[in-house]
Amino acid sequence: MEREPDSSILNSAKILWNYLKVDMPLEKADGILIFCSNDLRVAEYAASLYHHGYAPWICPSGGVGRLTYGLFHKPEAEAFADVLIKAGVPSDVIFREDRATNSAENVFYTRQLLIKHNLTYKNLIVLQKPYMERRTMATLTHHWPELKFMISSPPISFENYPFEGFSTSDLVHVLVGDFQRIILYAERGWQTPQPIPDEVMGAFNLLVSNGYTREFIDPAASPSIPPQ
């Protein structure tokens, strides 16, 4: 059984957390795009933004995920839509994109869907988990450079992020894995390169040296990118 992270591990993990969040200010937009995941709190946040008049429609994007099929037993977009409807969002303003299995596919399949439904999407609010904000930004600026967007996530702190079935140790592992993707995907031309301060790289190296590599990907792995 993995031991609980000590203070040095937690401090380094929080440095990664703060780096991976980009904290863009929000204003009203043409629509809300959700990059779906295993965290349904993002759907609850989207519903709140809708009810506060930030956008007239919501597009949850996500297919059958490696980590979520056993959790939801349906595409992520459908699970997120269920939460949105339960929170009072009308079904006819929810446009489900249920094929994407990675961030690049979220972009390509969503763009096709928005065109199909003749929706305006010059300026979007894009929602993610807090620690995936920066990677989402890097994906959008690379694969959808003409889009104006604001990235946001539920206002949950590092300390309060763990939930049932997802411990603080799990969070540290995924932070390290997501940071590795920031580096590798940029090197391979799949995302826009990000500046990395020395403090952040030092925190990453400390966590790697302490074995928090469970969510590492094969450096030779390539994401599926459908034709435009």
TrEMBL record:
It comes from the Bacteria. Residues 42-143 form the DUF218 domain. Pfam families: DUF218 (PF02698). Transmembrane segments: none annotated. One of its GO terms (cellular component) is plasma membrane. Coiled coil: none annotated. This is DUF218 domain-containing protein. It comes from Leptolinea tardivitalis.
